[in-house]
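Quick log. Single chain, no ligands specified.
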Amino acid sequence: MVLASNTHSPDQLEILRWTVRLGVVTAEAVAQHGGWTLASARGRLIAAERAGLLRSRRVLAGKPALYTVTRAGLRASGLRGFEPCRISVANAPHAIECARVAAALELAYPDHSVMGERELRLQERESGKPLASACLGHGPGDAPLLHRPDIVLWPNGPHEQLPVAIEVELTIKAPARLLEICRAWARCRCIAGTLYLAAPEVQRPLARAIERAHADERIALVGLDALGAGDEHDPAAAGDCVPSDA
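-> predicted structure:
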């Protein structure tokens, strides 16, 4: 749900709402998202922080500062159903990479909408059914145990096309857990397919899990650099990553 706001500029509202939906952003990701220079994006983020709308933290040496929305920023965004995101040393690397991937996907697929896990969770809660999540089984009361992707790529247009689930994989999961998730993605019929963007050390165990799950036709595995980074991003090169029926 979005409520109108006349207090802030359109650019500031766009940054706030994108931050709310993703949870965490960086200046580099905001620059790509808004089509601004990095210096301009940093200036806009600093201005929003000074206004009490965003909060920044640099939790990892040599890595970008992370921006999250404050409660004041959440109110100003007009979005409802979200809470401010918490940053830790443990989740910071994944948050940085998800923001980069989300911005790169927007550039590579302008005819699609990019949604983060937080927004997907909210929409699935409101709809009462999985929209782009894999079912791992059922819990108490026969409630589905869902595994949600980090990002969802939704096609825009008049035709009803299925979304693509995007997983950003930085660390090695236990083999049994990874196999369980791959099997769930292979069974999932509310998505066109799943794209794993994996760190080098994760690719081999992940490839084994995909093979054991017989999920080669439903899951694609590429390196984290497949979408490029910053100014080096090439939308044409990314076009082969996502299933063609997305």
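Residues 92-108 form the longest helix (17 residues).
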